[in-house]
Amino acid sequence: MCGIVAAAAQRDVAPLLIAGLKALEYRGYDSAGLAVLEAGEIRRVRAKGKVREMESLYLAEPFPGGTGIAHTRWATHGAPSEANAHPHIAGRVALVHNGIIENYASLRSELQARGHVFTSETDTEVMAALIEEQIGKGHGLREAVLNTVRALEGAYAIAVISRDEPGRVVGARRGAPLLIGVGIGEHFLGSDAQALIKITNKIVYLDEDDVADITRDSMQVFGLDGQPVDRTVHESELSADAVERGEYRHYMQKEIFEQPRAVADTLEARIGPQGVLPNIFGVDGEALLKRVRGLHIIACGTSYHAGLVAKYWIEEYARLPVSVEVASEYRYREAVVPDDTLFIAISQSGETADTLAAMRESRRRGYLGTLAICNVPESSAVREADLKLMTRAGPEIGVASTKAFTTQLTALALLTLQLARQRGLDDARYSDLCAQLQHLPRAIENASPACAFSWPWGAVSGSAGRLAQAQGNFIHPRRSLSCRRAETWPTGLGR
Ligand code: GLU
């Protein structure tokens, strides 16, 4: 998962674009680049490695310009290298892309047959070439982008500039996130609000298949049919501070210390003295959960591991069968869906491409409903699910995951309790588990930083336990120095 930032402004945008890319570093990447349009010329800088390496190249030879696009790449087609780094240029067009174009090979052959020479191994470059071709046929940039994206299969968020249209950036999305930032006399595109939050908190979230056309003083959104569509401006609640490292040595350390607060926030207004509050998963959530006879948890990476832990809890306490599967497998096979099965998607960002695709696929497969457990309220997963429970971890920059994982477990613990209660878990056991869950933020606080804490809910054995334990060890980098007891998290020491 990489990132995009783009700007149409009156001031020089390269420094803004670089700052935006730094705020997106948490998404992971292997190379970075930017291109700026000034006085009818496109200037570009790209480098393998960190944003700061690309930044040093830029600073050695800075260039002005009020229109620009920038990118961090996580290679899918062609090795990480300067030549494969974005932006890609074809004639008068420069383009950045997040995602995968599944039909790029046939498009590439067709373009080659028409004489186009490619300079990278990426799937992305075909889009730049197609847009350039369209402009050559007399279309404006927006129309050229529309005509091009109609021919694409796969997932993309793109931002494009053309030498012929100074001051304009056109973006488009399908299956990958992209939003508009509304500034004062300037507009931006970004993969998430974090990339833009230091400049503006006014955000327009684009829908699937939207095409955005921004200039300094205008912003328009179009559907794939080329007709204008209305999209609302939201005020993002993200704060700039949330992404500052402060006194901590690195983001992961900061995020480890944020866990008590993040877990407490995730529990807030969801569990009280009587137990889990009604309908915390959404309107009619309780009624729907009552009908559940089985669960399919679909996720990737860290979220998948949270699902593995939850399977043990739900099967033990709610006595419901749970299967947990990696989204990239699930989406491409014909899973059997027994009656009254709930589909659960877990994703920190709510934009994980395979998880989203699986969720969309699930619609066809006859589930009772979908539940998204997610950290980003405005994300596609949350928008598309029937039920939702937000983790309230705040932005997580560190890799591997810490507070995003612990808050996912917290949300899944709430779900377990709700299901268990509805299925007749006895009062004493239910109250005990609720009390332990409510005590969790305090338990984490008492334990950190030197020592691990134990998840109150008993041991998780087998591969899920080992995976969870590996995460736990990572959460406590100093435990080997100062912990006396060989505690594990969240597998626990007993009940
Ligand atoms: N598929 C494109 C590439 O390999 C974009 C990858 C990304 O999302 O960064 O260059």
Detail the topology: elements first, then pairings.
Layout: E1 3-8, H1 14-23, E2 31-38, E3 41-48, H2 51-60, E4 67-73, E5 88-90, E6 93-101, H3 104-113, H4 125-136, H5 141-149, E7 154-162, E8 169-174, E9 179-182, E10 187-190, E11 202-205, E12 211-215, E13 218-222, E14 234-235, H6 251-257, H7 259-267, E15 271-272, E16 275-276, H8 285-290, E17 294-299, H9 301-318, E18 322-326, H10 327-330, E19 341-347, H11 353-364, E20 369-374, H12 380-384, E21 387-390, H13 403-422, H14 427-447, H15 462-475, H16 479-482
The structure holds glutamic acid (GLU).
Provide structural commentary.
- There is one protein chain.
- Strands 3-2-4-1-10-9-11-14 form an eight-stranded antiparallel beta sheet, covered by helices on one side.
- The chain is 35% helix and 23% strand.
- It has two domains: 3-241, 4-Layer Sandwich (Glutamine Phosphoribosylpyrophosphate, subunit 1, domain 1), CATH 3.60.20.10; 248-488, 3-Layer(aba) Sandwich (Rossmann fold).
- The chain contains 16 helices and 21 strands.
- It is of the alpha+beta class.
- Helix 12 links the parallel strand 20 (369-374) and strand 21.
- The chain binds glutamic acid.
- Glutamic acid (GLU) binds next to strand 6.
CATH topology of the largest domain: Rossmann fold
Helix content: 25-40%
Q: Can you count the helices?
A: 16
The total number of structural domains is 2
CATH level-1 class of the largest domain: Alpha Beta
